[in-house]
Specification:
Length: about 290
């Protein structure tokens, strides 16, 4: 697994090891333990000996999208951390004498861009802008694994509800302090997913033979920012009177504000059709699970 120290990767490692699986972590430094393997995504280097015998390879590596303003330099970092890393792993997987039976590669619902009130599933085309273009290139970098006949899956993940990190890692402290509120007019759709369901979905995609291509990992019923704000207030028992106007968000976040104010109504059609069941499909359930 690449990206094993991230929010989703860390939770996936805990889930797999709790069930007796052995997880080999790809690290950028010299390995310190037998379950670590050296890689350098920028140089497209992977110590392929460490991948031998693996049933599956999971790539969740990538620079944090929401940690700072999107300068041109940081946008290049976001892009390279995903595209070069995916290409390195896909080529390594394709070159193994006995390749793994599955290659799961991270992606994001950013693939669809702005959708407004229009619901979209995996059949929808990519949107326009930095994130959609990034996701197209990111998924395309896995071509060597696909061409080698390895079952390849793309996880187009939504906003993960977790107190440890991601969007909700920042929202929880504000709402607990009574400082929470809607962003902009609050009418934009947020396609969320509980961390538990994110991990369960990835494991489902690893374990279920025949599943390949893109899968949206989002709860079945996306809600508007206004509805999610109200749900946060109900669960936490706090007022949600504050509003962050769109111009303030744009001034504070720059181009990244478009991701916060944008509307993405993404549905997990292929995941549901494959037989996956969400444990926390509603927002209040997901919030309580995170807490």
């Amino acid at each position: 697994m690449a990206g094993a120290s991230g929010l989703i990767g860390g939770a996936l490692v805990r889930s797999l090891t709790a069930d007796g699986h052995t997880v080999v972590r790809l690290v950028r430094r010299e390995p310190r333990t037998p379950d670590e393997v050296r890689w350098d995504p920028e140089r497209k280097y992977v110590d392929t000996a460490g991948l031998a015998g693996c049933d599956g390879v999971v790539n969740l590596a990538g620079a944090n999208v929401g940690s700072r303003r999107w300068t041109d330099a940081y946008k290049a970092t976001i892009r390279d951390s995903r595209v070069l890393g995916t290409a390195a792993l896909a080529e390594a997987v394709a070159g193994l004498d006995e390749p793994p039976r599955v290659f799961v590669n991270g992606s994001a619902m950013g693939y669809y861009g702005e959708t407004g009130d229009r619901p979209v599933d995996e059949d929808a085309p990519p949107g326009e802008g930095f994130l959609p273009e990034l996701c197209v290139e990111w998924e395309g970098a896995a071509a060597p694994a696909q061409e080698a006949g390895v079952r390849t899956v793309f996880t187009r993940t939504g906003l993960v509800v977790a107190k440890e990190g991601g969007a909700w890692g920042r929202l929880f402290p504000l709402f607990k302090a009574g400082l929470g509120g809607r962003m902009g007019d609050g009418r934009q759709y947020w396609s969320f997913v509980a961390l538990h369901d994110e991990v369960a979905a990835i494991r489902h995609l690893i374990d279920t033979d025949g599943l390949s291509g893109p899968f949206n990992i989002t709860a079945p019923r996306p809600l508007t920012n206004r509805e999610i704000t109200a749900a946060m207030g109900r669960v936490l028992g706090r007022p949600t009177l504050f509003t962050v106007p769109a111009p303030v968000l744009r001034a504070a976040l720059g181009e990244m504000a478009g991701d916060v104010l944008g509307s993405q109504r993404v549905l997990p059609m292929r995941l549901l059709e494959s037989g996956f069941t969400f444990a926390f499909p509603e927002i209040e359930e997901a919030i309580r699970a995170a807490l």
